[in-house]
Amino acid sequence: xxxxxxxxxxxxxxxxxxxxxxxxxxxxxxxxxxxxxxxxxxxxxxxxxxxxxxxxxxxxxxxxxxxxxxxxxxxxxxxxxxxxxxxxxxxxxxxxxxxxxxxxxxxxxxxxxxxxxxxxxxxxxxxxxxxxxxxxxxxxxxxxxxxxxxxxxxxxxxxxxxxxxxxxxxxxxxxxxxxxxxxxxxxxxxxxxxxxxxxxxxxxxxxxxxxxxxxxxxxxxxxxxxxxxxxxxxxxxxxxxxxxxxxxxxxxx
Length: 253
Prior knowledge:
Blueprint: H1 16-19, H2 22-38, H3 44-60, H4 65-71, H5 76-88, E1 93-96, E2 99-102, H6 103-129, H7 132-141, H8 146-175, H9 186-213, H10 230-252
Antiparallel strand pairs: 1-2
Helix pairs in contact: 2-6, 2-7, 2-10, 3-6, 3-10, 5-6, 7-8
């Protein structure tokens, strides 16, 4: 898969969570999110227990609370959507602090906020304890379609390259006195986007030709064969199995 790429989401460590094979952590995170989504929204206490489980994993992984909370900012658009739901949803209304809110909208907002936050937190923990290269190896180990894994690999590898190209173009515009201040400058920004697309496409063509000249035949070689023991699978299963027990209680109580 080539050389590893450190990412700002990853936090280097030697905790038991860091040492688990990547495909074990991927399977555990996916199963946990699936259980959370399957939990009835009325079981408010269940989501509190899920949050405790996530906090426990973060503590074992030695991930500081501040590090985790800063990465949760990515869900702000979903929070904004959830905040609007009680105002726009139809059905029975209830007065809260002098505002007329929809009961179904309040439940919908809670559902989106609780499940979305827990899902994002699980994803952030996964990224914080697993290098990107290891995640790709884990996806291969889980037998995901090779083409999807390759697309993800190239996206990760060349995302920073494209971002750096955009940064250089932005510096070039500012050095010539350009500053986007209104609609009249949208044309310049559109041309910049077009030029960036063409440069990225041409770079992709050059990379592909270089790969073909080195023997690329449609699949990337696997350098590291990652395996997991039954004990490691058992450790990884603690989170989703515990969450499943909570979910079942949420449906029965």
